[in-house]
Structures are given as structure tokens and as C-alpha cells.
Amino acid sequence: MEALNTSNVEDAAELKFGEEFKDIDILSNAQVAVILQFSARSAVNRDEELHDVYRKTQKYVDRYNTLTNQEKNNQELVKELDNLQDALTTFRKETDAGEELELHGYEVAALMNLVATDTAVEEATSLIPSLSRFPEAAIDEILDLIRTTMIRIVS
Amino acid sequence: MFYVKHLEHEIVLEPIHFGPKLKSTLVRLLKEEVEGLALATYGYVVQVIDVPETDIKFGVIEYDTGDVVCTVKYVALLLRPFINEVLDATVSQCNQLGFFAFVGPLRIFVSKHSMPEDLLNGFDGEKDAWISDDKEIVITAGCGVRLKIKGRTVEQGNITAIGTIKDNYLGLIDDGSGDVGDDF
Asked: Where is this protein localized, as stated in its record (chain B) (predicted)?
């Protein structure tokens, strides 16, 4: 059994993920939903049964995905999601000290998962504590990016 | 959280599989062996996304069986709970100690000690639900809750996490009927 307390190594609130997770791509529920939809279709075409873990995951991302729209076609959705991810990953803020701040992959995915159209800065920093290193105005900008994409996708 | 990573796995190929469809057999065997598995460090393997052809290494033929052990590198979509991450989950079961919620295949337990004060005495045995003092919040099977991961164990091929809903902005999201409830 793995140790319960690994908080000395791992802590999402401080963006510490341990050595093995240095070169990973973190995905939001919305992106996973698109991936699983594609492969579910090809599995059905090949008459393969989808395993339990797969089905449970698909049910989960379909339920908790705010960045989706049944009526939009997949290509449009993928483009919006890619654009949003790009915008968030290339978001840069210069601090007074002259340092450049950027969003960590984990923060980008967490933002895409947890933010709703009415999420305020306070809620965002409570859910994703590492965001507090950005000034409030910057966090507002970030939330705005997500809000506009969300509204575009849902309408 | 869901993430994509390059992983390695050893597959034992029996002589019957050697032939023109070797690669597709290898991919099929890999998927059968690895998809759905709960790896201790990396979490649940939800899906094998890709098996790059250049990364398949064949070992020697074993004397006794004629099998060949291949080391295959593949790209997997994984699900793993990270400490202090905030996730939305679906409640599956309530008991007097707390409730169980699921994030896909991942089971999370929230003990009553990790609930806000006005909820921790609110277990209703008849309705199998956790109800707050002001009766506004009802947590029962099928509800969506936002929780924070505080710990994780792996046993017998399953991953269970420990969560809390005590902090701000955590707790009930919806009651499973499609209506949105109040956040904490």
C-alpha cells in the first residue's frame, strides 16, 4: 500500500508534482471528453467492448464539462478548446520585480474545469491557491478569457 | 486530474502471434493488459492513445517457451488524484461516517470530520443523506459535489482518495437532477 502522506513531495496548491510528472500534458475534462468521444466511435465501428474504467470516465467528463455544446460540431469545439488552451498557456504577466509569470499546465486544466461564467477572483484563488502569485487584475483577465470562450461555445 | 504521459510496458508474445499482423496484435495485447489498470504511481490508465512504431523493442526468444518479451513504449491517458487538487465528483453512497463519491473510476471518501460544522451532525439514516442544519444542503447519492483531495491509497488494483468539503467554495454543486444548488 502506498503511503497516505506524500505531502512533502506532492502538493497541487504549490504546483509540486514530483519527479515522474515533469514531462506530462495535463488535460481538462473538456479535452478528455473530445478524445473519448472519438475513440468510443472507432471502438463501436470495430465492434469492441469498452471497458469499465473507460465508460465511467466518459460518463464523468460528459457530466462535469462546462465547455461543451451538443449542437456544435466537434471540429468547432476542438478549435475553441485549442484556442483557449493556447491563450491560457501563452498568458504572460510581468511583475514589478521584472519576472515573467506564466500559468502552469495544471492551473490551465484546473481553470478550464472549475471556472463558471460567474466565478470571481476570490473563488478562483481559493480553488487554485497557486494563482495567488498573480495580481488580481491578471487573474481577472484570465477568468475573462475563459468566460468569453465558454459563452461562445455554449451559445 | 487527467494527463497524458509516455509509459513503458513488457508484453510476452507467443510464437503463434509472429506474422504479418504482429504490430496490431501487440497493440491489441497492450490495450487488453493495460487499459483500465490502476498503476500505483501514475493512476488509472483510461486509454492507450498511441503506440509509436519506432519504440517497440524485441528481446530474445526464451528457451523454454519460445516466447519473446517486447518492451513497448506507449502514450496513455491517465487519471490520478493530486494532493490539494479540487475536483467535482458524483456521490455514490452515504453512511454515518461520511460519504463516497466517484470521479470516473476513482473512489473518494469524505469523512464527516471533513465536512463543514453545520453539516457534520446531519446524517439522516432513513434518507441516506447528509443534511445541513438549515436543511438547505442535502447530499445524497447522485449529487455532484466539489471536493479537495487530501490523501490517496492504492490497494488491490484500486485507488481510493480521501477528500474534504470543509474549505470555501467546496460542497454541493447540484442534486443530480440537472438543477444547480448553492455552493458553500
From this structure: Nucleus
Q: Three-state SS for B32?
A: helix
Ranges of beta strands (E only) in A90-143 are 92-94, 100-102
DSSP for B13-60?
EPGGG-STTHHHHHHHHHHHHHTT-EETTTEEEEEEEE--GGGEEEEE
| A141 half-sphere exposure, CB direction, 13 A CA radius | 13
| Count of CB atoms situated within 10 Å of the CB of B172 | 24
Given a cut of 80, whether residue B83 has pLDDT beyond it is yes
In terms of residue numbers, what domain contains A40?
A: 23-154
Among residues 29-88 of chain A, which lie with CB inside 8 Å of chain B?
A: 29, 31-32, 35-36, 39, 51-54, 56-57, 59-61, 63-64
* β-sheet bridge partners, residue B91: B101
| C-alpha cell recorded at residue A151 | 459563452
If asked whether residues B66 and B99 sit together in one domain, one would say: no
What residues does B93 pair with on adjacent strands? B100
Q: Are B163 and B108 in contact (CB under 8 A)?
A: yes
Backbone angles phi, psi at A92, to 5 degrees: -130, 140
Q: Choosing among B30, B46, B51, B170, which should be mutated to test the A contact, i.e. which has the most A CBs within 10 A? A: B46
**Same structural domain for residues B92 and B146?**
yes
Question: Is A114 within 8 Å of A90 (Cβ atoms)?
Answer: no
Q: How distant is the Cα of B118 from the closest Cα of chain A, in angstroms? A: 20
Residue B140 · residue B130 · CB < 8 Å: yes
Beta-carbon count within 10 A of B86 CB: 22
Q: Are B7 and B69 in the same domain? A: yes
Give the pLDDT confidence of B92-121 residue by residue, as tens digits. 999 999 999 999 999 999 999 999 999 888
Per-residue pLDDT of A110-137, as tens digits, reads 999 998 888 889 999 999 999 988 889 8
Q: Mapping DSSP to helix (H, G, I), strand (E, B) and coil, where does residue B111 land? A: strand
Reduced to 3 states, what is the DSSP secondary structure of residue B31?
helix
Q: How far apart are CA B131 and CA B114, in angstroms?
A: 14
Number of compact structural domains in chain B: 2
Tell me the whole-structure pTM to 2 decimals.
0.86
